[in-house]
UniProtKB/TrEMBL annotation:
It comes from Lasiodiplodia theobromae. Belongs to the short-chain dehydrogenases/reductases (SDR) family. The keyword Oxidoreductase applies. This is NADP-dependent mannitol dehydrogenase. Keywords: NADP, Oxidoreductase. PROSITE patterns: ADH_SHORT (PS00061). The gene is sou1_2. GO terms for biological process: mannitol metabolic process. Pfam families: adh_short_C2.
Length: 352
């Protein structure tokens, strides 16, 4: 993979050890509303809801992801980020250099764990100088920021934010700009999924909650960061994580609300891309297929996962870092003429 090739060269060029980040590099910014929302999540655990035959099942997944009702993480789950040695930048040819992000600042929502954290690692590996992780879960987010900063030496800060809370988002974005001086990249990975619920029995409050997080939340974060990018007159790249579910109807699970929310994210991407192109802001979306994440390692999903794999031409689920290079590409100058695109990365699932 491209980012690994750059990083291997970087590792050979210099074997210097990055000093651990100081405690001051990891800070928590809260509002009353976001703190109240965070209290819904028990300390050290992530409450995950799945449905089987319309019956709600709550599963508590330990933050450490190495015990409880889910399988131990695969090798890719715990890959350490390898910092890009700045001395190698001048040695890269023009093509390779376009895939690096020296001096840039990124905001990653839902970056406390899973796909969001892995994509944050990838951005750190290609040279960003600062990463702001937004997540509703304080302990998870603080640990993620500390870990990433220690791995790479990048200035990583955590901001406790619920993406449904517009005032909390605006406060955090303002604080990010005050600290870093700019925002160049937004990667919105925050989202939830409810599935195996028949449309005729779907609770309306649950429907509103999912739409508020997946779609309205994506808009609120993009709006707040977009305003800063417009004001800076420096442009930027906004990447919204959608899903192949925004373009197809999944089988065998019923998930009308989730599908609708991700279809909305795809259309939001296209709309923002056309409105903000004149400001030098590019907006693209990533639509993953079925991914092998900790949240999918729930016994209730075992039978469905067999169907997902069988219907995927590559005969596997996506690895947690399969999205990394795409995220780097969309964030970097390598995709300078690309906006409004929905990039499906699903092992070929949507081809059948």
């Amino acid at each position: 993979m491209l980012s690994r090739q750059i990083l291997n060269a970087s590792r050979v060029a210099s074997k210097r050890v990055i000093a651990p980040a100081t405690q001051s590099s990891v800070r928590t910014f809260k509002t009353v509303q976001s703190q109240q929302n965070a209290e819904e999540i028990k300390a050290g655990k992530v409450l995950t809801v799945t449905y089987k035959d319309g019956v709600r099942q709550e599963v508590e997944i330990p933050v450490e992801q190495n015990s409880g009702p889910v399988a131990p993480p695969g090798a890719d789950d715990k890959k350490a980020a390898i910092p890009l040695d700045k001395s190698i930048l001048g040695q890269l040819n023009p093509t390779m250099s376009k895939f690096t992000l020296p001096g840039k600042v990124a905001v990653v929502t839902g970056g406390g764990r899973g796909l969001g954290f892995n994509m944050a690692q990838a951005l750190a590996e290609v040279g960003v100088r600062g990463i702001a992780i937004m997540d509703v879960q304080q302990k998870v987010g603080e640990e993620a920021a500390r870990e990433l900063s220690e791995q790479t030496g990048v200035d990583v800060r955590f901001y406790q934010v619920d993406v449904r809370d517009g005032s909390a988002i605006n406060q955090a974005v303002g604080d990010i700009v005050d600290h870093y001086g700019q925002i160049d990249i937004l990667l919105n990975s925050a989202g939830i999924a409810d599935s195996n619920i028949k449309a005729e029995t779907y609770d309306t409050e649950m429907f509103r909650r999912l739409i508020d997080i997946n779609l309205t939340g994506a808009f609120l974060v993009a709006q707040s960061v977009g305003k800063q990018m417009i004001a800076s007159k420096n442009g930027g790249s906004i990447i919204l994580v959608a899903s192949m579910s925004g373009s197809i109807v999944n089988y065998p699970q019923e998930q009308s609300c989730y599908n609708a929310s991700k279809a909305g994210v795809i259309q939001l991407t296209k709309s923002l891309a056309t409105e903000w192109a004149r400001h030098g802001i590019r907006v693209n979306s990533i639509s993953p297929g079925y991914m092998d994440t900790a949240l999918n390692r729930v016994p209730a999903l075992d039978a469905q996962k067999k169907i997902w794999i069988e219907n995927t031409p590559q005969k596997r689920l996506g690895a947690v870092d399969d999205l990394n290079n795409l995220a780097v590409y969309l964030a970097s100058p390598a995709s300078a003429f690309m906006t409004g695109s929905n990039c499906i990365i699903d092992g070929g699932y949507t081809l059948w």
